[in-house]
Amino acid sequence: MGGNNSTLSYFDYESGNFTNDYFSNVNPGQGVLGDTGNDIKIYGGRMYAVINGSNYVEVMDAKTATHIGKITVTNGRSVTFDKGFAYVSSFAGAMQPSGSQLGTILKIDTASLNIVNRVTVGYQPEEMAIVNNKLYVTNSGGYTPQSYDTTVSVIDLNSFTETKKIQVGPNLWRIRADKNNNLWVTSRGNYADISAFIAVIDPNTNTITKTLNLTVTDFDFYGNSLYYYGVDYDSNYYSINSYGIIDITTKSKTSSRFTETQFTAPYGIKINPDNGDIFIADAADYFSPGKVYCLNKNGNVKWERTVGLSPGHFALLIK
Fold first, then answer.
1. pLDDT at 235
2. pLDDT of residue 58
3. What is the three-class DSSP state of 276?
4. How far apart are alpha carbons 114 and 128 in whole angstroms?
5. What's the CA angle centered on 109, arms 103 and 110, to 5 degrees?
6. Residue 60 to residues 22, 201, 310, Cα–Cα distance (Å)
7. Phi-psi category of 140—alpha, beta or left, where left has phi over 0 and alpha has psi -120 to 50?
8. Predicted local distance difference test score (pLDDT) of residue 93
9. Looking at residue 192, what is its pLDDT?
10. Which residues lie closer than 8 Å to 250 by C-beta, 6 or more apart?
C-alpha cells in the first residue's frame, strides 16, 4: 500500500512461458499497473483489475493484457459480473480514515465502462456473489474494529436496492457460491474472544444452514470439494497455517491437509477446473518478491516461480 508497485504476472499453459510485470511490458505508455491490486477477474473477453490504492479499475483485453480503459472507483475492493454489468464494491472513502462511512456497490455497463447506478450497503464491503438474481455482499466494518459489521447485504438486481441484511458474524470477507448455489461466507472474528469461522447461506431462504469453526482465509472449489487455507496467529503474532478440504454436499471437513508443502505466508488460492492444478500464492515477508506454486490435485509441487510483491489474486483464461 502506497508503493504504486502492483504488477501482473502471466503464465502460458501451452508454451510454459512465465512473464513478470506483464502489464508494463505490453503497455509501455501506461506506466505501472497501480497501487495495491486487490482483485482480478475475466468477463466478456476483458480482464478487470481492481487497483485499490489508485482508486480505479484497470480494464484490459483478456488475451493480451492491452489497456482498454480505467473506471474511477474510490477505494475499490472486489468485482463480479452478471448480464453485461460489472459490480464493484467500494469503501467509498479514503483509505484508513479516522472515522467510518457506509460502503457502496457500483453498477458498471461493461460495453461503455460507465457507472450507471450505485447502492449503499454496510461498512467496508468486501467480496460479492450473485445467485437467483440477487447480489450478496460481505460487510466487514474493518475500519472500526471495536464494532465490526456483522452482515451480508442482499441486493435485488432488478431494482438495484438493498432488500435485506443477513446477520452472520464480525469482520466478514469471502463469499462464493458453490455449484449447488450455496453461499460460503468467511468471518475473521474479532481477533479476541470471537474466533474465525465459515458459514453456509441458503439463498432460497437467506438463512445460515451450517457453521464450521474453522479459520478459512481463502478458498476455491473443485468438484464436490472446497479447498482452503487458513492463517491464525499465536500470542506472539507468529502465523500458523492450515490447509484443509470441506465436502460441499455434507458441509463437513473431510481432510485436515491437502498438501505437505510448507508455505511462508499463503496469500491466495486458485484451482484449474480442467485438471485440478492448485495455485498457491506465497507473499513471503510482504516486502520482497513473492512466489506462486503450482500443485497437482494430490498436493505435490509441479513448479514454482518468483513473482511480484504480495501475490494474491488469480484469473484463468480458457482459450
1. 59
2. 98
3. coil
4. 20
5. 110
6. 12, 33, 21
7. alpha
8. 83
9. 85
10. none
pLDDT for residue 45: 96
Residues paired with 243 in a beta bridge? 229
The DSSP string of 207-271 is EEEEEE----SEEEEETTEEEEEEEEE-TT--EEEEEEEEETTTTEEEES-S-----SSEEEEEE
Give the C-alpha separation, 275 to 297, whole Å. 8
Cell numbers of 4, please? Answer: 504504486
Q: Give, rounded to a whole angstrom, the gap between the first and last alpha carbons of the chain.
A: 33
Of 225, 285, 222, 273, residue with least CA distance to 249: 225
Measure the CA–CA gap between 252 and 211, rounded to whole angstroms: 9
Q: How many Cα atoms sit within 13 Å of 128 on the Cβ side?
A: 32
Reduce the DSSP state of residue 220 to 3 states and report it. strand
- The answer to whether 295 and 280 are in contact (CB under 8 A) is yes
Measure the CA–CA gap between 26 and 81, rounded to whole angstroms: 25
User: Which residues of the chain are modeled with pLDDT < 70?
Assistant: 98-99, 234-237
Query: Residue 206 region, left (φ>0) first, then alpha (ψ -120 to 50), else beta?
Result: left
User: Model's pTM, two decimal places?
Assistant: 0.96
- For 16-36, how does the pLDDT look when each residue is reduced to its tens digit (9 = 90+)? 899 999 999 999 989 899 999
**Residue closest to 60 by CA, chosen among 74, 44, 80, 79:** 44
Name the grid cell of 24.
508494463
**Could you report the per-residue pLDDT of 273-290, keeping only the tens digit for each?**
999 999 999 999 999 999
Three cell numbers, residue 101:
462511512
Whether residue 300 contacts residue 277, with contact meaning beta carbons closer than 8 Å, is answered with: no
pLDDT tens-digit series, residues 225-271: 999 999 987 656 677 899 999 999 999 999 989 999 999 999 999 99
> In 8-98, which ranges are continuous DSSP H helix?
22-26
The single residue listed with the C-alpha cell 510482504 is 286
